[in-house]
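Running this now, will post back.
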Amino acid sequence: MDALLRITGSDNVAVALRPLVKGESLDLDSIHLLLQTDVPAGHKVALEDIPKDGHVIKYGFPIGYAKEDIPKGSHIHVHNLHTLLSGELTYTYQPTHPEVRKQTSRTFMGFPRKNGQVGIRNELWIVPTVGCVNDIARALEKEAQSLLVEGVERVYAFTHPYGCSQMTEDQENTRQILADLATHPNAGGVLLLGLGCENSGIEQIKAHMDWYDPERMRFLICQQVEDEMEAGMQYLRELSDFMRKDRREPCDVSKLVVGLKCGGSDGFSGITANPTIGGFSDRLVAQGGTTILTEVPEMFGAETILMNRCKDEATFEKTVRLINDFKHYFESYHQTIYENPSPGNKAGGISTLEDKALGCTQKSGFSPVNDVLEYGEKVKTPGLNLLSAPGNDLVAATALASSGAHLVLFSTGRGTPFACPVPTLKISSNSALAAKKYQWIDFNAGRLLDEKQPMTLDQLSDELFDLVIEVASGKTVHSEDHGFHDLAIFKTGVTL
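Update: finished.
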């Protein structure tokens, strides 16, 4: 197995593919190294002497500057590397105009809906308007498991702590996310469950819906009925009876919307898992489908790559606002913009936000950016979209689902069991994680670096595309098998 990987020829660092030991002698690209320090797997090694304040280059771009003189063969990490990031910036559109070569589109077995959308699941959802009825929602979810018949694949309650004591934009965000989920095509039936005295009640949620099928939705205000469990189960039985006739049909892959997310990343995420997802994204876009990239703070430091791939100047300007508005959000709360890599990220070898961002944006592939979405806005333009949402795994994945993603591809180097309201397919960046957490991981991109039978990036991306077609056609992912499903809404502003 090779000991080091240099991602681009202009990099002055390499990534350790295995733990390296001080005093070890290595050769890479005609460069001879004598290791000055131990270097954990996934971490960076200096390929040349880097002077204090000199740029450290990875992925062909600066990921920070040296806080001290760094000798060749030394470990580069948070102890000797500092971010170059600052506040809001002015950008210039320098389009690269990436080309999309159209491919013959495939089909998957989905559930056509009346509004022309397609679901990849036919689930019965209970969506509370307010946290006060969470326990009722959970009780209904438990009792309604008896309604799992042909056509009804699962019954889920999506509980949350919001819906009341919120103000202005914060309250509108909650209403919009709940409206988006209640009208999601993966739900074959929805019970919108309210209390009756909340700020964001059923009528307010309905006002945020662009469309809903009255045959597939019921509304229950608990304060207006004598027995909310009896009334709720009656509605759920009606929905279940209607869903019995639903069957999967061949659907064009151009109808498919896939969210792109990473979390618990390590030094291999930007080398294996994220580029594999990027290859998948390019393939889906080439067949007329849609992908959505989010977690805006993890674009900081790589944003110009995305900006210059915007299809036109109007989309470029929307991307500039996306980035600077999120920086302003940090500053408005007196928070440091660049303080993003988590302890797990750092332990895995990610040192700065630029380091993380350049790996994170690999998930977008090379396709043009066709549109930019506000938080809670539903996708309307095929191709690659950018979505405003934070880096938090649960919040960002929920935002992807609410924008219309049928499933989320989630890459990870450290591992995580969570799932959002739609199937959450976990992709490991390294084979050790895939072997250790086989009950979490659905796809191992670490095979790109396997010593015995390494796969190419094209092979992995093709294989991932095939797996997504299977999942869209009904194959369950591990988080579904475990019954995991979470809803997390972006909280901004005052709680009354």
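The longest helix spans residues 313-332. More later if anyone needs it.
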